[in-house]
Amino acid sequence: MAMRAHIQTAEMIIKILGSAAGGGFPQWNCNCRNCTAVRTGVPGFRARTQSSLAVSRDGVNWVLLNASPDLRQQINETPELHAKPEFGMRYSPIKAAVLTNGDVDHIIGLINLREAQPFSVYASDRVLATIKANSVFQVLAEQHVPRIEMKLNEPFALTGAGVDLGLTVEAFAVPGKVALYLEDTSSDNFGSKDGDTIGLKITDTVEKKSFFYIPGCAQVDEKLAARLKDAPVVFFDGTLFTDNEMLDQGLMPKTGARMGHISMSGEDGSIAAFSGLNVGRLVYVHINNSNPALDENSEARKTIEAAGCEVGYDGMEVRL
Ligand code: MLT
Ligand code: MN
Ligand code: ZN
Fold first, then answer.
1. Using CA atoms, how far apart are residues 228 and 110, in angstroms rounded to an integer?
2. Among 313, 297, 305, which residue's Cα sits nearest to residue 44?
3. 149-195: pLDDT as tens digits
4. Is residue 5 assigned to a domain?
5. Domain that holds residue 20
6. Any keyword Transport (predicted)?
7. Residue 163 maps to a domain
């Protein structure tokens, strides 16, 4: 395979393509306070597509971190990801997609990338098995779109369509839960295993700088805290502000803990968990439409910002 590197910038470019959790914001069937506000244009609310990031080391070739059902819209709204005529009749800057779990909001966008365009899909054995079991993903023929298993805790170079992307990825298990449609209600933690929910450490192979991407996480345990200590940038699970907010709003009879998502607030929440970790920037992503912090004028938003954390938004760019 011919490897071409186009290292032009001195930094990684990270873009939030979608900052919302599954369902997006507003969610199609939801009349909660937030969804109603964003739908009717109340100031302080912005619409958000579903959960995905894109990262590039050279500004030319890009890696998707998760592929959301809104990917077509996200590509259209992101000039860096457009097809470019100077590269031929068929071309995409997207050279790889790395998946963190099998959730609908993280894998369905792969379907948008059909058309025999070469790129690589990276995922854990558990998530690859889910993709294999769903025959619709065969529209991504493996001769064009190889599926590459990420072994946990082993950094390796990301490549795709014959391009060395100048980045390494290390996948690691985080506390969490198997995708909703795969839950086995008769087993412990719904039959979840290591590899069902992973975090990613992405490292620039030249500059050796790293950031973390953890859009789904049930708990910041000691192991995860040690891993994240002193990280310059972490994009982290911002699904809910409080564990019971969906119940309290009459939306769904489930807590965040039941869904495998840590909350932002509270003693066991992520704001408290990160307070001693000396992380440079904590940027929340995968934000559910019930989260009061979606209102820029809310007390929840003030609490987050007072703690030095950030609420990610679609189109947000971080350079590292
Ligand atoms: C989640 O993050 O918990 C899932 O995306 C929920 C869902 O499948 O709707
Ligand atoms: Mn999700
Ligand atoms: Zn809603």
1. 29
2. 297
3. 999 999 999 999 999 999 999 999 999 999 999 999 999 999 999 99
4. no
5. 11-315
6. yes
7. yes
Burial annotation 146-161 (CB, 10 A radius, 16+ → b, else e): bbeebeeeeeeebbbb
For residue 35, how far is its CA from the centre of ligand 3 (angstroms)? Answer: 4
Pocket of ligand 1 (CB under 6 A): 21-22, 103-105, 180, 216, 259
pLDDT tens string 265-281: 999 999 999 999 999 99
State percent of the chain over pLDDT 90: 97
Q: What percent of the chain has pLDDT over 70?
A: 97
Tell me the per-residue pLDDT of 58-88, one tens digit each, with 9 for 90 and over. Answer: 999 999 999 999 999 999 999 999 999 999 9
Task: Name the residue of 101, 104, 180 to mutate for ligand 1: max ligand atoms within 8 A of Cβ.
Answer: 180
Here the CATH number for the domain that contains residue 148 is 3.60.15.10
Q: Answer yes or no: is 267 within a domain.
A: yes
What is the whole-number distance in angstroms between the Cα of residue 289 and the centre of ligand 3?
A: 5
The rounded distance, in Å, linking the Cα atoms of 40 and 43 is 9
Domain count, the chain: 1
Residue whose CA lies nearest to ligand 1 atom number 3: 259
pTM, to two decimals: 0.97
